[in-house]
Amino acid sequence: MRRIVFFSLAMLCCASLWAQMGQRFPSERKVIKDPKTGVELVFLTSKSGTGDSKIYQTHNQWTSDGKWVIFRSDRVKGEAMAVNEETGDIVQVTEGGFTGMLCVARKSMNLYHMREAKDKSGKRTGMEVVEVNLERLFADSEAGKLKKKSAYERICGVIPADMCSEGDMALDGSEEFVYFRLDKEFARKYPIAEQIAPDFGPRHMGAGPGGIGKMDLKTGKAEPVVAVHFKVGHIQGNPWHPGECIFCWETGGKAPQRTWMVNADGTGLRPIYRETEHDWVTHEAVISEDELVIALVGHRPIDNGDKKDIDGLENFALSNDWGPAGTKEYPTGMAVVNMRTREFTMEGQVDGDNFWHVAGSQDGNWLAGDDFARELWLVDRHTKERILLTAGHKTTARDHVHPTFKPDGTEIEIQSAMLSEDGRSMNICIVRLPQYLIDRYKK
Known about the structure:
By secondary structure, the protein is mainly beta.
């Protein structure tokens, strides 16, 4: 009996230690050449079954010193990790779980995330916004002198439960506050200019109201920014333009008007790219102070009167509620919208396929996009040249490569199952632009 009790206590202690912020994991770093293109691929993780995935492509992925990539993983269930690009060292950077989006600061070595706040009875009281001091954490982890998580964490504040019920979050360009999605019923209390939208499309999503809130990271004050007539999806701040929030109408597919922006004081609410019924806009990402890159997909066959179920990816008939959107009867591909002038520029499309998730370098030279075949393409914005960087990146059936540029424009982070034994488990991979491309626009 004593042995059983001792074993149980030991297991509990090990479990507690295992979940400690700052614990380190061995390097899994592997460098290979892409079999098709010869481009260098640096797999920062390479094990199967670890549940790795990158932060969504709308958000920053690298720490401000450019050395670490933050990612989601099930190495410790529900916790986030950082991996050093050069050494491959992996360090746990949250403790006690996180929910929603991970927000990596560009101006400091801080990480911000949400976590459910609960009272002593276990009832949810709201969402904590947590700041993690990564510089201190990495130093203590490397020295083997870890302290309790309170040495690295600061609770910025708690968003009340009635105001916020989901964990999606974005860091403002000032890095003084974060944006979050307002709860539907909370948003209903505030003035909304448009008639509340019903669900749109066969997935029965998109009904309003919704809205954006913000929290001051110093004072913890949480307040609404704006209420809107539709369901709010992904939120992102403009890193180069403080006080500007970009967000979308989420329907699970084609939206009546996908892209929106608003100022942090609630003024300036407007659509960004004013789409037509033929445009299927998705996966918008801020790429510079003034620019938003979007994908206009053409993944559905043109309706020539044949009403059989031939929609392919979405598996919906042509006669469904998506309407006439998403065919190549009209222009499709990667496009850039200037958020000041509203000028729209079509940048290119993949032959016989579609760009899906898109990104851009902040120097204005490059765009990147994955396609349905899990290939990664680079587009020169000056010449419109389209370059295949890497192919064969298997992912799960509902997931994609999700490219994001490093701030210096020399690398793109993706997620990939190329090295996975099961052909499904994703790893974190860095695609290095060939040197001749890096040198092309060096001043």
